[in-house]
Structure formats: structure tokens, C-alpha cells
Specification:
The protein is an alpha/beta fold and about 525 residues long. The protein contains 20 helices and 20 strands. Helices cover about 40% and strands about 20% of the residues. InterPro entries: AcCoA_carboxyl_beta, ClpP/crotonase-like_dom_sf, COA_CT_C, COA_CT_N, MCCB/AccD1-like.
């Protein structure tokens, strides 16, 4: 675990450098703060800042020089005491240009603002769409243009948007700040126009410099496009603080919160409870008791469906319902005259899915947010499970979870495989935050199972061609397939593609979940809970 935490620290530190020290120095020479420096200055001291998508783009776009953190810094923080989403283009990365992952990350930021009704601040410093990849970022539903659609919908919903133009703001990107409720600009460094000087020259033959075309004076005093101008980054950011200081308060969802209490069991012991060998069993209750307040967990139907732990607890004072995979082997209670079956850890059995569905429905009835702790290999297979109706039990759980109106949060602790990922509120089921520990792995099945399956297919194909593999060739091919598949199991592979919002130290779990619930509490539940047709 320590080596995994060291890797997390090293990767985080490197990624936070964005385009590197030279590019950072270039920003400073222009009199500009970097994206992270702007956020540090803007956000309230001593308050949490939950970064979203730090590892977005990692290992991608190597042929284009990479795109650290997707070229944009996103997080949930506080400005003048108000919780909000902050989005800051990182001009040290390709001048803040939008890669495909940049668009995905910006849309994720807006999604968080929309579903939690959080104000959003855009610190704009971007050269616009990265042209070599324009076909992957321009025209589709979840591409660049969706950002402006969300601008319009956020404003219509009464969710405050404030934009500061602190560098380039070009072409279609110019609509983002101007579709916000308030737009500010920094003199000398900020500029906004639909077409820059080179394109204007090429299009209509006009010679004009950037400042005259779309600088602060032009766009505030002459065009009236921007609301106000400021002499430097800090004075502009101070203005945003004053805006938030005077903004009215909105209705809350009313989720229950009492005074926070730390776990009585030492959270540091999580590192020992979680085995290094992911095949080894462990008691998930020991993990839960090191996350929840006072280490108190009120189990729901503890003797039934034991492969899932369901129960009520508090996290930093917030009331939550927890659904967690039990990773130790348990023995189910048999009917009269029958022996109960032994159930493997990390596998969802029919009785557990049945229990979880009812528990999820109860949490919706009582307006209690749900937390899913994943370490799941999938649903039980085999004739006994099929004859017992495992598919309908799983469908019942998925239906109850998918239709939940209370906010859901997911933490991937270990395995997240196959339909188990879905039933335990994977990314496709709209968790408000999806987090991963460094021990997490996500895929349709484990590396060992996938590699053996793929090898069998290749062996059969070669045999059908009359060219059977030798044992040595089989081992060589197995290693090649395993290595390739295991690389895709990494939590950083998932984080690079925004399948998870963050890879975190287990000791950050309480704080980040608490901030997620505080954000969710800004959005009252207006939709009735209905699960539709339940498979009984």
C-alpha cells in the first residue's frame, strides 16, 4: 500500500506541473498567474478543495505531446464561504486548447454544477479547439458545443455562472463567458473575439491587432460585451470574491447532518486491513468502521444476503446508507433440513441483491444519500444461481439503484468487474462522485480470467487453421495478453478517461464524501421515487 501511495503522490505532483516549469515561467513573465495559482488565490483558505479529473488525459495524445490534466483544472471548492465548481484553463498545456478529453472534463464540471445546483466559475485562458483533433471535439452531442448548451440551461435554472477572461478566448469559445451571468476581463492579457487577427486578415483583409480587435477596453467600453475590466489577475479574482460574498442563499435538500465525530477505530489501519493480494479475503466491515463516525454501522438484515453489507451510518455528520461488497467468505442460512451454501467474498448472490434492492428503496423513502463501496467480481454464476433466479434478483437491484432520486456516491476500493460494476452504481448510473483508491481495478472481468479466455480463443483459431500453438507459444501469448489487459485495469487508466473523478488516498475518503454530500444538499429532490416494473 505504501508503494501505491508513493506512486499516487509522485503522479499527482508531476501532473500538477501542467506543461512544465518553463511554461509556468512564461506565464509569470506575461504577468499572469497559472491556473492552479488562480484557484489558490480565489478559493477560501482552510476550506477543502476537491479536485476532479486530475489524471484526465494521462497516457493519451502522446503523438501530440500529451495533455496533462486535460489542459484544465476543475474542482469543488469555496469562494467567500459559498461552495462552487471552479474551472480554470491551463495555458501551460497547448495554450489551453481543447482536446477531446478537455471537452469531456468541462462537461463533467458542468454536470456537477447542474445536478448539485452549485454556482460555477470559469477562469478562461484558452486558444480554443485543438485543430489537429477537431473532428473528435467539435460536432458530436458530447463535444465542444454542448458546453454552451449547458451554459444556457444552467442560467435558466437559476444557477449562477461567473466567467473571468484572463487570457485568450477565441472563436466558439467566446460564447462560454458571454453566456455566463457575469463576465469580467483582465486588461493587457485578456482578449475575446470570434476570429483572431490572422483569421480576420485571411477572411476580409483587415489588419488589426488583438488588443484593438478584442481587448479589455474594446469589449467593455466600446462593445459592452464584457461587464467590467481589471488591471491584473488578482484584482479580477477579488471581484469574483465580492460577487459571491453578496449572492443570496438557495433552498437546501435537507439531508440530515449532526456534529461530526471521527471513527473510534484508527483509519490508518485501513492500510493493514486491505490485503496486498487482492485474491485474499477480508472483512469489509472493518473498512467501513474506519470511515464512519464513531465507527458505528447499523446493519440492515445482517444475517441475510451476507455477500452485501447494507446499513446506516454517518460520515462527517451526514446520514448515509451504505451498500458494500463483503469480501470474506460467508455461509448462508439454509432452509429447514438443508445446509446453507458457502458464498465467496466479492460476489453478489441472489439473496444479497434482493436485500440491497429493498435497502435502496428504503433510503429513497427516507431521503438518505447512498454510498456504494465496491470490491466486486460480479454476480454468482452456475446452474444453482441461474435456477435460483440470479438475473431477476440482479435486475431488481439495478432498477432500484438506477431510479434512485437520492444522491449516490461510489468508491472503488478493489475490484470493479462486469455487471457488479453496474449494480454497485458504476459511472453509467450517475453517482454524484465516483472515486477510486490506488488499489482499484476496473474491467469487464479480472486480468487472469480475461487473459485465459482470450488465449483459448486464439489457441482454437490457430488449431482450426492447422497451426496449433506449442506450450511455449501459449505461455508467451498469455503473458502478452495479460500485460496488455492489466495496464487497462489500472485506476489511472480509468481516471485518464474520466471513468472515475479522482484517485484518492483512502484517508481522504471521509472528507471528499462529506464535500460531495454538502454539494448535493444544494439540490432539493423534486422527482418522486418510482422503480417501474420490479422482477419478483
Amino acid at each position: 500500500m505504501q508503494s501505491l501511495l508513493d506512486e499516487l503522490t509522485q503522479r499527482s505532483t508531476q501532473t500538477q506541473l501542467g506543461g512544465g516549469p518553463k511554461k509556468i515561467d512564461d506565464q509569470h513573465r506575461k504577468g499572469k498567474l497559472t491556473a492552479r495559482e488562480r484557484i489558490d488565490y480565489l478559493a477560501d483558505d482552510g476550506k477543502p478543495f476537491v479536485e476532479i479529473g486530475l489524471f484526465a488525459g494521462e497516457g493519451m495524445y502522446a503523438e501530440h505531446g500529451g495533455c496533462p490534466s486535460g489542459g484544465v483544472v476543475v474542482g469543488i471548492g469555496y469562494v467567500s464561504g459559498r461552495q462552487c465548481v471552479i474551472v480554470a484553463n491551463d495555458a501551460t498545456v497547448k495554450a489551453g486548447a481543447w482536446f477531446p478529453i478537455t471537452a469531456k472534463k468541462n462537461l463533467r464540471a458542468q454536470e456537477i454544477a447542474l445536478e448539485n445546483r452549485l454556482p460555477i466559475i470559469y477562469l478562461v485562458d484558452s486558444a480554443g479547439v485543438y485543430l489537429p483533433l477537431q473532428n473528435e471535439v467539435f460536432a458530436d452531442k458530447e463535444h465542444f458545443g454542448r458546453t454552451f448548451r449547458n451554459n444556457a440551461q444552467l442560467s435558466a435554472m437559476g444557477i449562477l455562472q461567473v466567467a473571468a477572461i484572463m487570457g485568450s478566448c477565441v472563436a466558439g469559445g467566446a460564447y462560454l463567458p458571454i453566456m455566463s451571468d457575469e463576465a469580467l476581463i483582465v486588461e493587457g492579457t485578456g482578449s475575446i473575439f470570434l476570429a483572431g487577427p490572422y483569421l480576420v486578415k485571411a477572411s476580409i483583409g483587415e489588419d488589426v491587432d488583438a488588443e484593438t480587435l478584442g481587448g479589455a477596453t474594446t469589449q467593455t467600453d466600446i462593445s459592452g460585451v464584457v461587464d467590467n475590466k481589471y488591471p491584473d489577475d488578482k484584482s479580477c479574482l477579488d471581484a469574483i470574491k465580492r460577487i459571491f460574498d453578496k449572492t443570496g442563499h438557495t433552498e437546501s435538500a435537507g439531508f440530515d447532518r449532526t456534529e461530526s465525530a471521527p471513527p473510534t477505530k484508527n483509519p490508518d489501519e485501513i492500510y493493514q486491513v486491505l490485503p496486498a493480494d487482492r485474491v485474499k479475503p477480508y472483512d469489509m466491515l472493518e473498512i467501513i468502521e474506519r470511515i464512519v463516525d464513531n465507527s458505528e454501522f447499523d446493519a440492515y438484515k445482517p444475517g441475510y444476503g451476507q455477500s452485501l453489507l447494507c446499513g446506516y451510518a454517518r460520515i462527517d455528520g451526514w446520514a448515509v446508507g451504505i451498500v458494500a461488497n463483503q469480501r470474506k467468505v460467508v455461509k448462508a442460512k439454509g432452509r429447514t433440513g438443508q445446509a446453507g451454501e458457502m458464498q465467496m467474498g466479492g460476489v453478489i448472490y441472489g439473496d444479497a441483491a434482493d436485500k440491497a434492492a429493498r435497502f435502496i428503496m428504503n433510503c429513497n423513502q427516507k431521503r438518505i444519500p447512498l454510498v456504494f463501496l465496491q470490491d466486486v467480481s460480479g454476480f454468482m454464476v452456475g446452474s444453482r444461481a441461474e435456477q435460483g433466479g440470479i438475473i431477476k434478483d440482479g435486475a431488481k437491484m439495478v432498477s432500484a439503484m438506477a431510479n434512485s432520486v437520492v444522491p449516490k456516491f461510489t468508491v472503488v476500493i478493489g475490484n470493479s468487474y462486469g455487471a457488479g460494476n453496474y449494480a454497485m452504481c458504476g459511472k453509467a448510473y450517475d453517482p454524484r462522485l465516483m472515486l477510486a483508491w490506488p488499489t482499484a481495478q476496473m474491467a469487464v472481468m479480472s486480468g487472469a480470467s480475461a487473459a485465459k479466455t482470450l488465449l483459448q480463443i486464439q489457441v482454437a483459431a490457430q488449431k482450426a487453421k492447422g497451426k496449433p500453438m506449442t506450450p511455449e507459444e501459449e505461455q508467451e501469448q498469455l503473458k502478452k495478453i495479460t500485460d496488455q489487459y492489466n495496464a487497462q485495469l489500472s485506476p489511472y487508466y480509468a481516471a485518464a478517461r474520466l471513468w472515475v473523478d479522482a484517485v484518492i488516498d483512502p484517508l481522504q475518503t471521509r472528507t471528499i464524501l462529506s464535500e460531495g454530500m454538502a454539494a448535493a444538499n444544494h439540490a432539493p429532490i423534486t422527482k418522486p421515487y418510482s422503480v417501474g416494473v420490479i422482477q419478483t
